Amino acid sequence: MKISLVFFFSALASSDAFATVTPRASLTTRGGDSRLFSTTEEKKEATEAPAEGKMAGDDAPPVQLGWDTHQAVDEAPSTLVRDSDGGPEGNYPMRSKFEKMIREAQVSITKGIEEIDGEGTFQEDCWTRENGGGGMSRVLTGGKVFEKAGVNLSVVYGSMPQEALQAATERGVDRAKGMAPGERVPFFACGLSSVMHPKNPFAPTMHFNYRYFETDGGVWWFGGGTDITPSYVDEDDMKHFHGTYKEICDKHDPKYYEEFKAWADRYFVIKHRGETRGLGGIFFDDQNNKDPEEHFAFSKDAVNAVLDAYGPIVTKHKDDEYTQKQKEWQLMRRGRYVEFNLVYDRGTVFGLKTGGRIESILMSLPETARWEYDHQPEEGSPEADFIDACKNPREWV
After folding, report:
1. What is the rounded end-to-end Cα distance, in angstroms, of the chain?
2. CA distance 4 to 356
3. pLDDT of residue 127
4. How many Å apart are CA 151 and CA 163, to the nearest integer?
5. How far is the C-alpha of 195 from the C-alpha of 204, rounded, in Å?
6. Rounded to an integer, what distance in angstroms lies between the CA atom of residue 199 and that of residue 233?
7. d(CA 201, CA 173)
8. Do 224 and 209 form a contact (C-beta atoms < 8 A)?
9. How far apart are CA 135 and CA 3, in angstroms?
């Protein structure tokens, strides 16, 4: 379930397969020390923190956001990012700019999905928190094409335990260096997360998540990605989906697609099954080795490519004929989707550890799923071919 906070904030602690990320620069642009540091540890050493570790001040965010701190409102305020709210000092203009970008993306994507569905409409729930931030959850259920589709936006200020920071990023341990044992980490997080579950077994499930993080000490990073989870292999569909994102990646960095495609293949592994959740896409995290504006521009282009990459595939298959067995196979693959989200998804774990809004966190789960005891697809069948693609990731473009 990606979270909402990602929300969004899309898996469990990093796996050994993940590439090591070298420390990068942090940035403070609103108050406080404006020097650049590569890690929060260097920040600590430079500010004469006590030997036993830096401790949170009296004005630190609440130690627990709380499951019941979300207050429903009829309409979301014009912005959920306010300079007067709590959280760490940081790049306030980027916080505001990122929120504006994902708000516009939420509107355009939900409008496009409604047009594809033809009948269903998104219900919107808005909520705020007293200490700052809030969110907007848009969910469509019982549509003509989509069984369930959700696009959630969240802005969160607060503090999290260090283990939650480890769940939120592959470099979580590094980001917590210099902090006292048991100390909570002040943070700001803003992101847009979505999962679409069509009814037809030949129309793939799709997920995306794009986020911006800041933690105490001026450390910031971007993360996100878009991935696809069909039940059957359609090479033309995969060439279109991956090709769309390769074009976006190539526009910003010729190394991005190869790197981020491989990252997705590593990240979306159901370890206890020895297979990927679906057929990949792009995934990236800890991105702060370039100017923030460059990372922002890439995230903006990537999230705005969702409809181009996914829409034609759903439109192509939404009316395909299928058998009961094919529907049952789709439900079994949804079961695998649930397994990954509840056990490994970074966003789900982060949301649960920071008191996120439960309905938003669990939005990514399908309404229906199926588990059959020791099910093995028939050799040479389309189902077996799909399993092979999950066990041996393929290159589509």
Report:
1. 28
2. 8
3. 85
4. 27
5. 11
6. 17
7. 41
8. yes
9. 12
Contact between residue 209 and residue 157 where contact means Cβ atoms under 8 Å apart: no
Cβ count within 10 A of residue 387: 16
Helix (H) or strand (E) holding 257: helix 256-267
Active-site residue, from 70, 197, 207, 295: 207
For residue 107, give every residue at least 6 positions away whose Cβ sits within 8 Å of its Cβ, in sequence order, or none. none
Give the tokens for residue 27.
């940035």
The string of pLDDT tens digits covering residues 288-319 is 999 999 999 999 999 999 999 999 999 999 99
364 to each of 103, 293, 377, 381, how far by Cα in Å? 19, 30, 26, 29
The mean pLDDT value for 210-231 works out to: 92
Structure tokens at 341: 């989200």
The pTM assigned to this predicted structure is 0.79
pLDDT in tens, 130-164: 767 889 999 999 999 999 999 999 998 877 777 66
Q: What is the DSSP string of 269-335?
A: EETTTTEESSS-EEEEEEE-SS-HHHHHHHHHHHHTTHHHHHHHHHHHHTT----HHHHHHHHHHHH
Number of CB atoms found within 10 A of residue 261's CB: 23
Is-catalytic flag, 197?
A: no
- As a whole number, the mean pLDDT across the chain is 81
The length of the chain in residues reads 397
Helix/strand/coil for 69 = coil
Q: What six digits make up the tokens of 209?
A: 């998540």
